[in-house]
Amino acid sequence: MIYRFLQSIIESTLTRSPAIAVLGPRQVGKTTLAKTIAKNRIQSLYLDVENPQDRQKLEDAYAYLHSLGDICIILDEVQLKPDLFSILRPLIDENRIAGRFILLGSASPSLVNGVSESLAGRIAYMELSGIGLTELSDKNDYKKSWFRGGFPNALLAGTDEACLDWLDDFIRSYIERDLGHLFGVDLSPVILRNFWSMLAHTNGNIWNAEVFARSLGVSAPTVLRYLSFLEGGYIARRLPPWFVNAKKRVIKSPKVYVRDTGIVHRLLNIPDYNSLLGHPGVGGSWEGYVIEQIYQRKPSGIELFYYRTQAGAECDLVLVKGITPLACIEIKLNNAPSISKGFFSCLEDLSPQYRYVITPESDTFTTSKGVVVTSLHRFVMELLAEIK
User: Fold this and answer.
1) Predicted structure pTM score
2) Distances (CA, A) of 62 to 21, 65, 87, 89, 281
3) Residue 1 lies in a domain
4) Each residue of 236-259: pLDDT tens digit?
5) Are 306 and 255 in contact (CB under 8 A)?
6) 64 plus 153 within the same structural domain
């Protein structure tokens, strides 16, 4: 069993917060993690909102949960019963003890119909992403991790064929049922599949809703709606541009990534790692993989952006705290990278304290111009924590 980095953070938070919500895509391991944590508690109860028997128990949720007293209650797929959020507020206020509720959700509460009750001050929100490179025992497993993605059933499958079969089922399920079911909306499976495929083919490109709308034969607001649901289901990520304190004219549209590279590669029909290396989409895939690994382990208060001027100078990733760019990062697939003039131009514009080029396997060294070249594993395990 793989130890999840988030486990110790959740366990610590449960000692001081009445409730915690663990959010992330379906099949990412939220239930397994919650049950593992619950084993270490004196008494706990697991309820799955999708289970008809458990849902029946929650018909009068306030009375039922109130009768359970102080035990730790795990509520899985909580977004399917949005009125629970309003019920939990008085329950917590009446008996404000730490670690009373663990909520598990596969959709952002802000996009779920019926969620209007704020639990601010009563709940801590955390996101569980796919299994990250630093959660694997062997740092050289980045090839497998990158190609298969972070969903446990895909990453840990016995063969690449079994991995691809699972990803096919996952994609089909999300398209035909899950995504619309999560948010209580009707989505066209045909449009959703084509949209998802287009995102994979343009992974990491600057977002242009009009281009997607024309290709799909729908309106730009419809495209934005579909993107919002994929983002709210933790499947896609919008990487915003950095333009605060910019000294030049800059691009102000976000980049969009499909977050799990296993899904990207399946949508692109890439059968194995060697085929990935020769595919036109390999650069965008590696860039998205690196950004996802950094997102999982970034220090508190650090936000992720990219920076690109109208003249074409670009920094793949900018780590920002408040309004201060702390680090500029160029992401390279070549282990002996040449650093672009555009990157140095971005360094002049943003004046960050830290400057990195991240590659798959490079030894760590500093160039004559003060840029640190390092491997992804070394960066997320050691260097990232220094950026504060």
Assistant:
1) 0.93
2) 18, 5, 6, 10, 51
3) no
4) 999 999 998 777 899 999 999 999
5) yes
6) no
